Amino acid sequence: MAAVTHHPFLSSKLLQTTKPNPIRIGPTAVRMSLQETAPSLAVVGVTGAVGQEFLSVLSDRDFPFRSIKMLASKRSSGKRLTFQGCDYTVEELTADSFDGVDIALFSAGGSISKEFGPVAVERGTIVVDNSSAFRMEEKVPLVIPEVNPEAMDGIKLGTGKGALIANPNCSTIICLMAATPLHQRAKVQRMVVSTYQAASGAGAAAMEELELQTREVLEGKSPTCKIFKQQYAFNLFSHNAPVLSNGYNEEEMKLVKETRKIWNDKNVKVTATCIRVPVMRAHAESINLQFENPLDEDTARNILKNAPGVVVIDDRASNLFPTPLEVSNKDDVAVGRIRCDVSQEGNHGLEIFVCGDQIRKGAALNAVQIAEMLL
Amino acid sequence: MAAVTHHPFLSSKLLQTTKPNPIRIGPTAVRMSLQETAPSLAVVGVTGAVGQEFLSVLSDRDFPFRSIKMLASKRSSGKRLTFQGCDYTVEELTADSFDGVDIALFSAGGSISKEFGPVAVERGTIVVDNSSAFRMEEKVPLVIPEVNPEAMDGIKLGTGKGALIANPNCSTIICLMAATPLHQRAKVQRMVVSTYQAASGAGAAAMEELELQTREVLEGKSPTCKIFKQQYAFNLFSHNAPVLSNGYNEEEMKLVKETRKIWNDKNVKVTATCIRVPVMRAHAESINLQFENPLDEDTARNILKNAPGVVVIDDRASNLFPTPLEVSNKDDVAVGRIRCDVSQEGNHGLEIFVCGDQIRKGAALNAVQIAEMLL
Fold first, then answer.
1. Least CA distance to A338: which residue of chain B?
2. In this protein, which residues make up the domain named Semialdehyde dehydrogenase NAD-binding (chains A, B) (predicted)?
3. What is the ipTM, given to two decimal places?
4. How many domains does chain A have?
């Protein structure tokens, strides 16, 4: 188990693994107990919030491996961390890092993926990339294992052939985990999404900034704005992704485009408004669905109750529905507020409210699940 | 000026007016400088967040009055406060409180309004009621002065005839301030709203609870949950209003029904998801609009720039759009993220993002503006 202590909302605890550790047993530790047939792994961007969560999820799921490389930028190289009782030193990512690596989990930003993803593939590594770098490339599968596992057909371990597989954007994963089972039944024609996105989506430093700013504001001080250019504590703002010429920001257009690709449906209409709220690590989404075929709310609720990776929290009497805090550090995406849309007729519309851990199912868990499908 | 010091996000400063003041000049102070023709006022629920804001707005707008009564529950009676340099003692609200009162601004909850609103009307008082008690009664005008001033036709001061006028719900006011000018041009057919609602909507005690909880969580303590039954700090949850049999909560159905009444359009389709976010005093709303007639985004932006009580903040290059913090303590509702909806064709849809001070335009300012129309 990675020595990551997850506090449900505070970030400063998140990177305790990177504390120097006096014992150093070499750059790539080998787990003695594992069969030689297990794949060799690499984690790229291991000191980041998602990188840390990769380790946590690999451990939680007993992912088999014969070796694991901890890779990061030069700045982080030399840092030491403990994983499953072994001590590792973070290595600097270079082209040679991928020699002999079967599966690499990337989460170090789009430019690192663009530079090193193809290099790894050339050396025979299957790359599961959490960045947006390759998501919309036609030949790169964009995969949520519960939704479109078939997109990975043909990619196999042990052939010596590398490949790129893209992990969708966190908001897309969380949205489609809930919307897909309903889409499969009644066919979504149009989807209107408004997000409530946590600090974690902008990385560990953003979580730290939210915490720091909150302390400052409570002390009557001016908030420190380094990651975001405006006050985040007790405030919210339009997602910080660049705004495109059509007025949508990149985060919103990811939801629009990735949904079409994952559902393999060029005609599905999606619109989104992405907002950053002062929550630490789980996203929420208000989703309005318009269906081609009628779907009543009881049927929808039952479909969702039986959907893999989904939990329904929909207690109207007690007013208990999904919250970001409740899903933090959890694998399942929670769905609630399931109700027939009063603005649509004939059971052709539903409103739902969804929460999912941005770092876990929104990133690391989904990537590790993709890797599991290769085993 | 009321001695209310508004901190933009923290509540503990909000009720400084109720600090005991050594000078007491009687229950109903008379402003010497005002003409005898100005109306006599009463503020019901004066110690609450909205009640305090009534005083602030009356003062900011130089609302003329010959006398003003500070009314609240028995629990608060005897408290002293300073308003425009005069000291007042809060009086217990009784049936006799309204003798000689021309205009009463009510914000003490629905049950107080139900009990004392008709009593006041009987005594010849024109009641502007901030609660939901009478909003949907057919004969009670539901008014946003910039939107449907004509609904108040026939209600006049000085006739000795009392009347009820309802102040819409805060989410409705903020939504319709932005949506109405667009509706007037292109006719809204359907509106999908997701809210990001501040603590202030649940009163001063909720703002205090958010502040307290945040301090507790930062100190690693369990959060105190008195007003809300779950953690609010660094979290969000479905609005705490009771959930109805159709799965919508009361807050959401207010948006649906009040929009129809204010626009005098029984056919307009509205759906809403109302979420409480850890922000102090201003609401945000993501609004998706479907129009009968085409409306391009430049025209929409110009319409909004010229709309009374609306300010457009829509700087795509700098990624600067409305935030709750920016509109806190401001009169205008801010609109941004104005863009043609990519999920609709032929300029028949728009996405907008709106922020408005819940206590001010969402409650006290709107009520005082209604009262101004009586002058």
1. B247
2. 40-155
3. 0.91
4. 2
